[in-house]
Amino acid sequence: MNHGTLRKFSLCISVVLLFTGCRSQPQERTFLPITGGEEVARPAAVEAARTQVLDYLLSSARLQGIPPSADWQPESGEVPEGEYHFRSGDWLMMIRGTTTENNNQQVLLINQADHATWSGYITPDGRLVDTAYYR
């Protein structure tokens, strides 16, 4: 064999071994979350409180321009333990778990654009109490 044929032969063998080696290795799938972060588990009581407060405020004339329930998203970032934040545009909702001595869930809504604030709480038996509104 001359040198040209030997080079072609070694090149062909290298290519065949390369392709064979690539196919024989297991294919691993990389999981990349769509949102880029992990979803934080929230207690069912927090979700129920969020829905109840939004239903109440949307049906009353307490706050004008409050976004519908589907538009609220959990806020990312550090929050104190037992407190949950939701955001929709200029609106921020904070729900604090049952940390008071009477086990009420405290809820605060703030519209940062027009400085409107609503606060209230939900009793352990599920009753919503409207405590303050500032504009």
Describe the structure.
The chain has 135 residues and is α+β, with helices and mostly antiparallel strands. The protein has a domain at 44-134. The chain is built from two helices and six strands, in the order ααββββββ. The protein has helices spanning 3-24, 44-59; strands spanning 73-74, 83-88, 91-96, 105-111, 116-122, 128-134. The chain has a six-stranded antiparallel β-sheet with strand order 1-2-3-4-5-6, covered by helices on one side. Strand 1 (73-74) and strand 2 (83-88) form a beta hairpin. The relative contact order is 0.12.
Secondary structure blueprint with pairings:
Blueprint: H1 3-24, H2 44-59, E1 73-74, E2 83-88, E3 91-96, E4 105-111, E5 116-122, E6 128-134
Antiparallel strand pairs: 1-2, 2-3, 3-4, 4-5, 5-6
